[in-house]
Amino acid sequence: MVQPTPWQANKIRYRKVDTPSTVQRIVSQRREEVAKVLASLRGNWGYLCAAVGSIITFRMLFKPWLTASGTDGQISADPFGGLQISTSLASLWSGSPPPAADVNGTWGVLASTASAVTVFAVLVNLRARTKVLSYVAVGSSVTLALLIVVVVAHLNSKAAEVKRMVGYGSARDAGTQVGLLVRWATGNGQYPVPGMRQVAYATASLTTWAWLAGAISLISALIAIAQWIRGRTTGPAA
Q1: 66 φ/ψ angles, rounded to the nearest 5 degrees
Q2: Which of 52, 59, 129, 185 has the fewest CB within 10 Å, making it most exposed?
Q3: pLDDT in tens, 162-179
C-alpha cells in the first residue's frame, strides 16, 4: 500500500468536504433563484410571447416581401423601400425608360419602431410591473400588427410599378432596340420577334415573408390582448 507524502497528507487533511447540509443549502438557493424568476414572469407570459413575436417580425422586415419578374430581369422589394434588381438594362439608352417605382419605406421604419417599443416595454415591466407599461406593450403590439397590414397593402399596390422597372418601354424606341440587340449578341437574352416564340411572364407577388410577418404580428397582438384582459379579471399579479 502506497503511503501519502507529507504534502498529499496536508491536502487530504484540509480538503473541504461538502456535507449534506451544504448541498441542501446550495439546492435551496437554486430553488429560490428559480422561484424569483418565475415570480417575475407570473402574469407576463402573454406579454413575453408578444415581445418574442415582435423580435421575429422585426427580423422579417429585412427580407424581400415583394418579388416580380419582367421582360428584362427580376426585382424584389422590402418594407423599407429597398430594391434588389437583376437586369441587363436593355432600356438604358431609351428615350423613355421605365420609371422607378415609388416604394415608401416609412411604414417599415414605423413598424420596426413599434417592435422595439413592445420589447422594451415588456422587459422593463418584468421588473416594474406597472399598468402603464402593460398598456404600452399591448398598444405597441397592436400597432405593429396594423402597420404590418399597411406595409403589405402598400407593397401590393406597388406591384405593377415594381414589375415595370424590369421591363422596357416602347419597342419602337431606337435606344431600346440597340439594347435588345446588344443583349442578344452577348448571349444575355433573346431578341423579341413577334410570332417566333412563346414567352411566359411571371406576375409580381407577395413573398412568404410578408404573410408570415402578418400572421406572427397578429397572433402576438392577440396574445398580448388576452394577457391584458386576464390581468384585469384576476387583478394585479403578486
Answers
A1: -140, 130
A2: 185
A3: 988 887 766 666 666 666
